[in-house]
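Reviewers of the previous submission asked for a worked example of the structure-prediction workflow described in the proposal, so we include one complete record here. The input consisted solely of the amino acid sequence. No template or homolog information was supplied to the procedure at any stage.
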Amino acid sequence: MPGITNIMIVGVGGQGSLLASRILGNLFIEQGLDVKLSEVHGMAQRGGSVVTYIRAGKDVASPLIEKGEADVIISFEELEAIRYLPWLKKNGKLIVNTQKIPPMPVLSGAVSYPENPIDAIAAKGVNVYAFDAIDIALKLGNAKAANVALLGVAAKVIGFEYEQWTDAIKQTVKPKFIELNLNAFKEGYSKF
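From that input alone, the workflow returned the following structure tokens.
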């Protein structure tokens, strides 16, 4: 991995973005890389925006990612993908769960949820990997595994061996949820 890899995980409170960031952090640490993580919670308990910055490389000074510098953005929700698109670098990769969680301005009727946000993003020439991670997780018996299904796709984009990813999952996830998360990862990994 030349230089520094910049990854953002974006979503809303309660979607499991923090666990996903910890899995990524453990993955990078096990590869001998310097890792910096920064979590930003915006009213996370009320469905507000949650952003995690993960930077990994030989020597990482700061955890923050500036606009136009993210190699990969993993979005747990479509509107969050639009909101954080300016942070994606040219030729970066955007992984999106096709879930829609209307924010308060949409719920109150002040604004409307954008129609076909994934199509609008793809029309800008962005490399988009969009799929229903919730559906995968529900078929496995627990909607909370959607975050790790998204990491399955991220593994294809970011790199490293399959076993290195599964080892990071085993190190990070509570023992009683390991099998569920390994299955979710496998399903996401085979998606694209």
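The domain at 5-189 is CATH 3.40.920.10 (Pyruvate-ferredoxin Oxidoreductase; domain 3). We consider this example representative of the routine output the project will generate in years two and three.
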